[in-house]
Specification:
Elements lengths: L1 E3 L8 H7 L11 E5 L8 E6 L5 H16 L3 E4 L5 H11 L4 E4 L13 H10 E5 L9 H13 L4 E4 L6 H11 L4 E4 L9 H10 L13 E3 L2 H15 L21 H13 L20 H10 L3 E4 L2 E4 L10
Parallel strand pairs: 3-4, 3-7, 4-5, 5-6, 7-8, 8-9
Antiparallel strand pairs: 1-2, 2-6, 10-11
Helix pairs in contact: 2-3, 3-4, 5-6, 9-10
Length: about 325
Amino acid sequence: MRKILPGDAEIPLRRQIPLGLSPDRDRRRPLWVHGDPSVLALPAIGIVGTRQPSAHGLASARTIAATCVAEGWVVVSGAARGIDEAAHEAALSAGGRTIGVLPSPAPGGLRQGARRLGDQIMSAGALISDRPPGTPPAAWSFVARNSLLAALTDGMIVVEAPEGSGALITAEAASEFGLPLAFVTAPYGAKSAVGGLSWLARAEEPTLLPPDVLPPQLLVDDQGLRAWLRVCAASLREDRTVRAPQDTLPAAAPTPGGLRGLILHALGRAGAAGLTEGDLLGVSEGVEGALPSALTLLALQGLAEQRGGRWRVCEGAVLRSRA
């Protein structure tokens, strides 16, 4: 086990403030690391969710983790049953690196039956806690673990989270840290995802957030995930100490399918007149909650833009507030 102190070289500057390890913050606990501490400096995406996911949620977590690995990201999760375990295992199966964040150091912080998974994580990454060795897990330490997990990432994805889920605490921490945040679609009526989707709906309500703060995204397909990963990579280019993953979309990306494809078709037919979000509710029937995120992703891809309250097809569009 390695003890990493505030200011040690293994902790990159972009993690210092979220971890509370910078000189002007009062939370200066050391990190206890089993495995390779160098993974702390690598680009990382958090994947969290319920311990009792649907089959859809498990499949989503595995696919997302494998895609993140393929695009050069470390996968960070909490080594719990359900979504966490699926994300770790998929990252390992894809030959990637992964970090397990625990409420207390291994082996005590590992849940029962997770010793084998813990060994695999240590061999391809690290198990990390900010509690001293020998400290038993307690309810409050799980809450602290969720915040620590967010602080070790450059973007956070929530895959199914019921109301009151610890994954929503992680999402809240990620939001406070200013990290890109995304939620995954869920089977209709699934209680395992109610909390996450409610959180997303609240976040999309009109707020006084600065216009440069990206709203949470609803991921509905692989193209949406890759576009969102581009946002995470872009934020890393300001940190010269880390090599950001390559762009996750080719220079000449294919026209999106699904909801975004329908939106582009409708905007193309509307021409210069454009359409309001209200006009586009018809093409998003049944998935209206995904419309704002789909429009944001189209803008990020340079395929559409909003001016004067109306959306239009526009090559090289810039992202603007929907206000």
